[in-house]
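Sorry to interrupt, but I need a hand with the structure work. Please put the record directly below this note.
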Amino acid sequence: IDSIIQNSNIEIIHLFYAGPPSLAVNLARKISRRTDPEFIIYNYMNSQSPKYKWGLVLNSDYSINNLIIKN
């Protein structure tokens, strides 16, 4: 991700994640508030429709009430 955003004007990254929670936590630790753009990370649920029903907003100036996006 660093190499993609390093020389670009990307303002928001939409990340669709389907993997173990431990890896998700480690990925979130790599996001820097000072140097990375806003991230919206969508949660995958195989048993639901739509599969990505909600997401979390990271690195934004939204209030705490707007950090979860519901589909």
Notes: The mean pLDDT is 81. The longest strand covers residues 38-44. Residues 21-29 form the longest helix (9 residues).
